[in-house]
Amino acid sequence: MRSQRKCDLAAGAFIAFLGAVVILAASQIRGDADERLPPRTLPYVVGFTTLAGGLGLAVKAYRFHGEDPEIQWPEKDGWVRIGVNLLLLALFTALMDPLGMPITTGLYVAGAIWYMDRKRILAALLTGAGSALVVYYLFIRFLELTFPLGPLGQ
Question: 120: closest CA among 134, 132, 131, 109?
Fold first, then answer.
């Protein structure tokens, strides 16, 4: 019988290793003591989250001794949905500099919600606008992070 257990163990160990590398690299980032949020904070969060996820996957695979569950791969509609979301992420990245982080975030969130549930256009627009406001006031005004502002910075 073919088992995914060894693959999950190896993948978990590799992901945990990547998390440890990110943590090690983040510890080398220098920042000013005057900054509210040191520049290594986000890499630390990503590194510890990746390390915990990898360890969790490895431990879960190590403790699993039953039959492998059948994997439910997405059908054609699911693949299209994944492709559209990847396209939206590519547009989000491409438009970040010219439009700025708040506007791009609002457009991305509204577009993704609208694509997933086209009946709720008003909820998509309101959630996108709320996301843009949160990004602007929390990350740019309150935490003073340096994200692109686009037209809002002029």
Answer: 109
